[in-house]
Amino acid sequence: QVQLVESGGGSVQAGGSLRLSCVASEASFSRYAVGWFRQAPGTEREFVATISWGGESAYYADYVKGRFTIFRDNAEKTVYLQMNSLKPEDTGVYYCGAHLAGGFYLNYSDYRGYGSWGQGTQVTVSS
C-alpha cells in the first residue's frame, strides 16, 4: 500500500499562511483521491479538503472554504494544502490519507474511506 508523509506544519500568527505537503512513496498514489483531515486536542478528526485522483475535483469543509486550497502534482507524488488567512481554530494535527474505498464522490468527507495515513504535521495558529 502507498505510504504517505506529511510535512510543512509550524507555528504562525492569525492571518498567516502555511503550505502542507503530503508525499507518497510510489507512483500508484496517482490512482487515489487524497484528503486532508485535522484533529485538535480533545476533538474528533474532521474533514478539511480532498482532491480527486486526476485533480479535476476538489471539495472543502465550509470552515476552510475560500481560505485553503488543495492541489496535487502526481509527477512529484505530492498533494499540497495551501492554507491562508489562518485562524486559531485551525490549530491541530493535520493528516493526509488516500481514499481507498468506493463511492468517493458521495463520501469524500468521511475519514473511514481513507487509509495509508501519514504521521501528521502540527499546525499552531496563535491569536
Summary?
By secondary structure, the chain is mainly beta. The chain has one helix at residues 104-107, and strands at residues 4-7, 10-13, 18-24, 34-39, 46-51, 58-60, 68-73, 78-83, 92-99, 114-115, 121-126.
- Compute the separation of the termini in Å: 40 Å
Helix content: under 10%
Listing every helix as H and every strand as E from the N terminus to the C terminus, the arrangement reads EEEEEEEEEHEE
Based on DSSP secondary structure assignment, what is the total number of beta strands? Answer: 11
Strand content: over 45%
Walkthrough of the structure:
- This protein is mainly beta and 127 residues long.
- Helix content is 3%, strand content 46%.
- The chain contains 1 helix and 11 strands.
- It has one helix at residues 104-107, and strands spanning 4-7, 10-13, 18-24, 34-39, 46-51, 58-60, 68-73, 78-83, 92-99, 114-115, 121-126.
- Strands 2, 4, 5, 6, 9, 10 and 11 form a 7-stranded mixed β-sheet that branches.
- Strand 7 and strand 8 form a beta hairpin.
- It starts with a strand and ends with a strand.
- The mean pLDDT is 94.
